[in-house]
Write a structure and sequence with these properties.
Layout lengths: L1 H8 L17 H36 L2 H37 L5 H5 L16 H11 L29 H16 L1
Helix pairs in contact: 3-5
């Protein structure tokens, strides 16, 4: 009986509830603190951008004419490379969107006439929403096909002739049955 008493005291307790995760666990104070941190981060990013522009202006003011020309050429080259690469990305995204809409459509033929520079941001990224709108406008939807994929449209086939045992009598009977079936 002593063993029974110790067993009852050693029974495991029910598992505790799992702590809440995500924003629910933070409460109102935590959410406010997160919002404050996000606004500080965004403000710091905008200040950094402004300071970088100001630093570039100071550097450019102290450059000689030849250094300015080199810096300008580098900037033009960088812009050209970003634009060309962005156009390649936009072309790939256009083809992918067109293939989703209609796999049988030749998207490459439309790309020749499309000005992809309109669909590239200044950062060189393709404008997904703009490309999706162009695909919707230029690529027709896939036509629904009422026939199954394996149907070649030859019509119904006659039933197979009955099996024979190879004797002339059974071959003649099978031929007669087949001719009777085609007459019906």
């Amino acid at each position: 009986m002593a063993d029974d008493a110790t067993q009852e005291t050693n029974t495991p307790e029910p598992p505790a509830e799992k702590p809440a995760t995500g924003d629910d666990a933070l409460g109102d104070a935590g959410k406010k603190a997160l919002d404050a941190m996000k606004s500080e981060r965004n403000q710091a990013r905008s200040e950094l951008t402004a300071l970088r522009k100001e630093l570039d202006q100071f550097k450019q003011a102290q450059m000689s004419e030849s250094e300015k020309a080199v810096a300008e050429a580098e900037a033009r080259g960088r812009t050209t490379a970003i634009t060309e690469f962005g156009q390649r990305l936009a072309a790939a995204q256009f083809v992918a969107e067109a293939a989703k809409r209609n796999p049988d459509f030749d998207a490459a033929s439309v790309l020749e006439d499309l000005n992809l520079a309109k669909y590239v941001t200044e950062a060189g990224e393709p404008d997904g929403d703009g490309l999706a709108a162009v695909v919707t406008r230029l690529v027709p939807e896939r036509a629904s096909n009422p026939r199954p994929a394996g149907d070649v449209g030859l019509g119904p086939r006659p039933p197979a002739p009955p099996l024979t045992d190879g004797s002339p009598r059974s071959l003649i009977a099978a031929g007669i049955a087949a001719s009777d079936a085609t007459k019906k």
